[in-house]
């Protein structure tokens, strides 16, 4: 049984990765999704290529569902509420017409998403018309103002939590750029005014109101008609807000998704450029591996959570050691003691965070200069005015002269040399693909780089290099197998998706676990196209001649086949020996401990279990395997 | 154990032209010996010097010649003596002939091990190769060297050469240096060991490999282009972080007279129910649970095993793509290298053809990899070609892991063009920036690239091992200040700065940075360093900062009685030297300790609390949670012992907690532990 299987108490000083993965989420988010459910949302569609066209309503709801799933995976403490307006039925604490707050059991209106919420939101369109219904809420001849009501309900929902510890947002999905278009005259001005006032009130309370517009394929969503006032957009802001006409569904979804995700800062860094001149940067983690959530231990009898307490005991006397201040390293015959202060002192380098050392041409940054994910830095004038100007000037110079900056990042966990590579903005139909700024790439030290190429070439025969013909055939093959439009993050993580699919099924007590499509498998269909097959054959011929089959049977290195033969013999023997014992009987009668370690290992080898550990560990492993 | 024993012969040129480089060589060789003592204590090392006045070696006795070559230490297992010897190498007086030294070294290895020894036999040559070797009795120098290199190969020896040039040695004859480079190149090619030129002390430090790695393959098997075409490859790690060594906790509970005490600390775990903390649950009554939103879902290991994702071991090609589609900053982890199966000519050719074609067309390959059967997940990554320029080394690929969709956060940032004009640089400023970037060049054409990752050592590790060695001889030694060669890694090159003085001045004058006056003083954390060189009377190249409100006019040097909190904050914010942080913390601890000790009926408690709060905040800002947490522990124990437990209660009532992981990353304390620290009613003390 492992001592600390969930690594709760891993010594953080030994875990430099920890700093990268911990994002300082001191605030959480409370979000109300306000979705326009008017008939117009159900009739307008956007082209979806080879699939059936999707309605705007569907686009909005699927974006929300996707976001909730991501939220679950990121295990955040953010809370959401989903609220439809322009509905036939009403459901809200203020008893206002045309607003329906969607919810499921075991959950408050504004609360963390649960498995049931995700499931129901995924399937909402099936029952939407019957249960909730779609109806225009702002019609001439009536003073009903569903937009006003919706904002009121949203504001009330967000009363939970103070503005200091939580970011409050209302995300409004609609395709109607002129909500009061059907009203005329004084009533119209009146209604618009009260709606705007309502918005101001909400904004004064710290609630940020954001628009997620859905455009028709033939015309842009015109923000100036009404929403620019609501959002307080003027001049430059207005120009920047243009929602591009969604030509492809994917692009629209991309745009929406990007607007929904709010940036989270890791930390602010001071960048010391030269001679006392420093600027301030904000760092963001644009790319970090997402791991399935950590294990929580539960009491198997009650299924209630447990907490782990650890205490430190002196190995010699059994006394409790509290807050031990010293560490030691055995060296020669002695234990050399270090205090915690000394160790901090050794790791402490410069007082500055990031220090510029100079510039180098881009081709000095090799493919293998990588250890960890990079960090994105963007200037900020919040504390040091003038930072952005210097940053932009250097950024442009670096792009133009094709150079990157080398700097020393004196962080407390692992001081590191880094490369700052400038990135120019890249925009596509789906929005901003690459933000402008610099990427901080962590460079390895000489101790971290291994020269493995030199390993095996001890023979006197120089290894062959491909001749021109072979290279040409390879090139032809490469052309056939080109992945057009490959985007780096187009694959979903199959293990993670499966993990959460399993958990969702268990949470909802479903019988079956849905199959998850592994998007990372090669395109077998594409590979059986005749053009590809023939290019492959030609390449094979040029390198292997006719001997492909033979070559691949004869294992290159004699030694390798010998070891594998030996291993096979050992495992066959183990199976044979293992058959001589009645394991179940021995286990039931507690007689396993009477066997020798060698004998126990027969069982383990025969069943492909690991062999490591002392006798106790082996026995418990056998018992676990048997399910005892 | 014995099988992993390595033998190494250090061949060090101590001739007069090398004297400038010798101090660094002493450092790097003694560090090598030190690391071997810790991590590979059965390794054997010999030290041979050449360029010495005297002559002392076996070959000179047996066959004559081989003058000015001294065997400083014959081949034997590493010990403390070796470290000391290497720290103080004698200086020679003659020109060095490296070939003589090589032959003496080879002879030593052959005599000791013969041909059949399984461990590695390595020669390591450190020289400036500025002087010609003697002409052989027959044939050319090249032939002679080739024969010797062949001989080395037969005996399974490898020789790596570190050639010192540039500022580390004096002027020399170019044709001689070229000739020697050529000859050493023959050794490097034939024995497949590296030949490296270093021009700066820092690169010299990073050139000698001090840690032994036995490379293990991550994967051996087929690179599948399609089910009908597979190439046999082996995959190794190309980069892998060498971490700071894990030091075990020390327990001083055992009495000093106990000679068998290990002084180690064990960890004991207890599992308690969250709702009922008095109930202890035995470890085997636990079941795993995973979070799904607010719920925790129990699932046993066996159940989980049945449903989890289990990919098959394989490496498959998904396709090729333009290199520019894959941005450099998407690489997620450390790098692997794909080499064709050694000895398999067809595989070598196939890999070579693909690599060359990919390089010509500027394309990369996307792979889906599962290194081991039963691995938790697949890895999607990019293969980039590595066409080798050494004939003896086959072409290979580098492999970098790419992110999945879930790993990417698509934050949106404003476009630079949309910023107000005052935030954008004007023409003059842009020009100054261009000049600055051009001038501040670390890789000028014709000279060695400064700070190449492959030759730059990790300054933290260097510092640690040096301090370890120092402490083994003087247990109370303080941590020495940062060494000059290491400083080149952490600070800009002063020479480079002074050479480009005018460009820098222009840059400074055109740009202006000032603090935002609307921000509260306490939240300002920007830093301004004086380059440490300016303290030693060099040309003062640091300008006075624009606003001096931040650094106090009077430099506080100790935490006084009148205003301890202000003194502490001023001292800890001093930026002129890193040691003030440590001193501030230390002084404050003493102050708090004194306050508590001297208090009468709790009169000093509020002041002590104020100081503790300031100390806590300072430790969070400076990332020193352990210092605070340990101090609080010690303080409370002290209070118990001196019947001052009312202080602990006072702290508890004010809800002073330890610093937890969420507040400072380096803390080992979880949130629960932090909160519960002072609430414990009975202290667990023996």
TrEMBL record, chain A:
One GO CC term on file: Ku70:Ku80 complex
Region (Disordered): 547-571
Presence of the UniProt keyword Nucleotide-binding in the record: yes
GO molecular function, one term: damaged DNA binding
Residues covered by the SAP domain: 592-626
Enzyme class: hydrolase
GO biological process, one term: DNA recombination
Keyword set, alphabetical order: ATP-binding, DNA damage, DNA recombination, DNA repair, DNA-binding, Helicase, Hydrolase, Nucleotide-binding, Nucleus
Superkingdom, taxonomy of origin: Eukaryota
Record InterPro entries: DNA_bd_Ku70/Ku80, Ku70, Ku70_bridge/pillars_dom_sf, KU70_core_dom, Ku_C, Ku_N, SAP_dom, SAP_dom_sf
Record has Transcription regulation as a keyword: no
Its EC number(s): 3.6.4.12
Pfam short name (any one): Ku_C
UniProt subcellular location: Nucleus
Reaction catalysed by this enzyme: ATP + H2O = ADP + phosphate + H(+)
Signal sequence segment: none
Record NCBIfam families: ku70
Similarity field: Belongs to the ku70 family.
Name of the protein in its database record: ATP-dependent DNA helicase 2 subunit KU70
TrEMBL record, chain B:
Cell compartments where the protein resides: Nucleus
Stretches for region Disordered: 522-549
CC per GO annotation: Ku70:Ku80 complex
Listed name of the protein: ATP-dependent DNA helicase 2 subunit KU80
Functional summary from the UniProt entry: Single-stranded DNA-dependent ATP-dependent helicase.
EC number: 3.6.4.12
Composition skew (Basic and acidic residues), residue ranges: 526-541
Family: Belongs to the ku80 family.
Reaction(s) the record says it catalyses: ATP + H2O = ADP + phosphate + H(+)
GO molecular function terms listed in the Swiss-Prot or TrEMBL record: ATP binding; damaged DNA binding; DNA helicase activity; double-stranded DNA binding; hydrolase activity; telomeric DNA binding
SMART domains, per the entry: Ku78
InterPro entries found in the cross-reference section: DNA_bd_Ku70/Ku80 (IPR006164), Ku80 (IPR024193), Ku_C (IPR005160), Ku_C_sf (IPR036494), Ku_N (IPR005161), Ku_PK_bind (IPR014893), SPOC-like_C_dom_sf (IPR016194), vWFA_dom_sf (IPR036465)
Domain of life: Eukaryota
Keywords: ATP-binding, DNA damage, DNA recombination, DNA repair, DNA-binding, Helicase, Hydrolase, Nucleotide-binding, Nucleus
SUPFAM superfamilies tied to this protein: C-terminal domain of Ku80, SPOC domain-like, vWA-like
KW DNA-binding (keyword) present: yes
GO terms (BP aspect): DNA recombination; double-strand break repair via nonhomologous end joining; telomere maintenance
Gene: LOC110766397
Gene3D superfamilies: 1.10.1600.10, 2.40.290.10, Ku, C-terminal domain, von Willebrand factor, type A domain
Residue ranges of domain Ku in the record: 278-419
Alphabetized Pfam families for the sequence: Ku, Ku_C, Ku_N, Ku_PK_bind
